[in-house]
Amino acid sequence: MAAPNPSALAMVPFVSVQDMMRIVNAIGPRQMLREICAYIEADFLRWETFDKTPRIPAHSEEGVIELMPTTDGEHYGFKYVNGHPANMARGYQTVTAFGVLAKVSNGYPVLFTEMTILTALRTAATSAMAAKYLAPKSARTMAMIGNGAQCEFQALAFQEVLGIDTVHLFDIAPKASEKAARNLADAGLKLRICASAEEAVAGADIITTCTADKQNATVLTDNMVGAGVHINAIGGDCPGKTELHRDILHRADIFVEYPAQTRIEGEIQALAADHPVTELWQVIAGQKTGRSTERQITLFDSVGFAIEDFSALRYLRDQLERTGHFVQLDLLADPDDPRDLFGMVNRAKESV
């Protein structure tokens, strides 16, 4: 006898890696980046409605595994994500992730999805959103230091949201820059592979640092940063991992997602605990000033925060009917009698 079909309540929409790639290509990466940016911005405008807590990390010598939860009272979302810098040399991805969005009213998930690709999209969308408020309005050239998995997403997001038309590429591994240039060849961007970070930042209005080494590195020194530049620092994301010389931090106006997390994981971990920073949501809400002068150096010290993942999960859920690229996963036990879970298991052997 065949096993009974699972009930509708047992099923949860699941977006696999293959489905995610189909969604990105069906909508288009530029449009998807723009739309995710809008969802994140909308959630930053209601920042105070969210439950906020620094992500929950498990550090090891090899890397970190983290949980990133939040809720707006109607939905609850979390992301599982790792960061293992040595993975690439061993044939593994440096960052992998998956996530869940659930209804608060009954606790039932409404989405289960891969988030390795989705995280790359939301990180780039967040960077571009911040730059809308912090970068010079005339910015057209970006230096991209660190040309790994995030590089192309960042370039396309800044092109789509800010109108960037030129990207200077630098990576300590020349093949990474060649890969990025190859992937962006048809993007309509002027691309230049540079031999050093100094060459990359020359003439750049926006400098994005996105390196993977788990250490206090000096990707940018003070003399490399001129007046009027916006720095998008996204590589520092755990204790002991930074990219900027400390002197840059003292010259810049610093903007962060959630100070309690950024002071532990971001560039500002090198500063005193009371060093002034501005929360980005306050700028978006009009409560604080972002860029105010042409010569101001602005720094978005981004470590990634759970609300951004929540926004990305919310966006993806809204695209399921639009694209149809998902499967229903039999994920939740749903006995006929909610009190008789054992009976459901016991009866299943009769259908084997």
From TrEMBL:
Keywords linked to the UniProt accession: Lyase
Supply the EC number(s).
4.3.1.12
The EC category is lyase
Which superkingdom is the protein from?
Bacteria
GO molecular-function annotation terms?
ornithine cyclodeaminase activity
Which Gene3D superfamilies is this protein grouped with?
A: NAD(P)-binding Rossmann-like Domain, ornithine cyclodeaminase, domain 1
Q: Which SUPFAM superfamilies is this protein grouped with? A: NAD(P)-binding Rossmann-fold domains
Identify this protein by name.
Ornithine cyclodeaminase ArcB
This chain's source organism reads Planktomarina temperata RCA23
